[in-house]
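User: I'm putting together a teaching handout on how multi-component assemblies are represented. Below are the sequence lines for each component of a complex, exactly as they appear in our records. Could you produce the 3D structure of the whole assembly as structure tokens, so the students can see both representations side by side? Please keep the chain order the same as the input.
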Amino acid sequence: MSDPTAATGLPSPAPRPKRKLSNYMLDKNLQLRYVLLVSLLSAVIAGALGYMIYDQRRTASESIERDLKVLTQADASHQEFQEQVASGLESDDQMLVFKMVVVGFGLVIILSAYLVIMTHKVAGPLFKVSMYFEQMASGRLGKVTPLRRGDMLQDFFGDFKEMHESLRARSVADVELMERALAALRASHNEADYRGEMRGKLDEALEALDRHVAQRKKQLA
Amino acid sequence: MTASKSGDRSYKRSWKNLLINKRYQLRFTLFMVGLTSLLMAGLGIWVMWVANETTEVSMASVRGEACPKAPVIGDGAPAGADEDAPSRPSMKSDEPADGKPGRSPVPAPVPAPGSAAAPGSAAAPDAEPRHTNVQLDESSMTLTPTLPPDLTDRFVAHWTCELRQVGTFDRLERGRMRILWAMIATGVLLVLGLAIYGIKMTHRVAGPLFKVSLYLSKMREGRFDKVYNLRKGDQLVEFYDHFKLAHGGVVTMQQADIDRIEAVIAAAEAAGAGEHAAVAELRELLARKEKSIE
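Assistant: Of course. Below is the structure of the complete assembly, with chains in the same order as your input.
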């Protein structure tokens, strides 16, 4: 997967990112595999059937040329006519090959472009989820923005979003609980008569928890 | 999905589980199959159109090669239909050689054995008589040996040619039908093969997504179990690695929380504040977090 932010525009929630031509190949391995398979298959079918068409057509032309040759061999004046017809048939056959090659190439190019767009609608959501995974790996649980219109794997993305929101909600609750405990212990620390040297250790632990909670809050922002 | 062995977390592929994500898998597979069918049908019709044309041209070419005419014997042949037709053997009563009718036949005297031929009907004594006159009572019959000697050969040549042409027509028609059936068979096989291959190929994408979805639902419930590897041949390996990193990150986060909470609880207990309500809450939180990463 290439440059992530260009395609999904993470993590800014608005405006919703638009598709760009340069970002269509997000997951080359996944996309090219499918595009190449379908394009190659279409090329093979078109090539094989195209060859059959040409072969049949050429056989018919040769048959006509042969018959014409037999018919005109007795009369030398018809020689030119026979050659003209033969040349006409040959150029027709060549034109047919040319047309078929152009149609075949056109088909493969249009098909490949369409498939890149289609597979992009799968690779895009996967790419976006991958970006959130990267954020989660570093402990960041920011907000999840929805997929673009027309994207596939909406169900999967829905599962991910639910998990992310649940994890975030639980983390927020945990942070709040830790914050409350921290405040309560600090308040009681001032009121209660804690044991001498242990008091310093509790202060250190509460200080560390305070920093920890601050970091968590930052990650949840 | 079924586990292959108890305790072994690798799952084997089963044909029952091939369609994990119907929407995604069928969409891609049907597109591939539909496109192939369209291509095969469109180009197939074109091929058959050209093949029909070629067959017709070839048949016309075969028809153009004229077979030698069959010799006609007996009545019923159209007059002047065949110049090469042998003349019918004439069996006429005492007709003159010039064929002029109206003349009253004059019965020729029967020559005595050993005597010369009758005048008018006899040839030179040293030559073979061209006509044989047979006297039957009061009339005579003329037998003319007019069947050509190559009659059999001509019959054979004619019918061999006719049969060869019919055989060629049959061969051309069979060739045309062979092309049609070959294309139908290829098309059906291709569509079936592609459907199976398409589902298997998309399964290798849907499989990892399904697996990640299972982990996601566990994570949603606050369970962060160990994440196992993908099966051999699965795609989205990079995506799965990202997921594992994310899972690892969440587990690390939980572990860091546990460490901090444990330190505070230990310090509070040591300081004599172990019975504080806040510490009790922290203990509950600790227990929940420890359970979540078991």
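A couple of points students might notice: Chain B touches chain A through 73 residues (CB under 8 Å). The helical segments of chain B are 22-64, 151-220, 237-270, 277-292.
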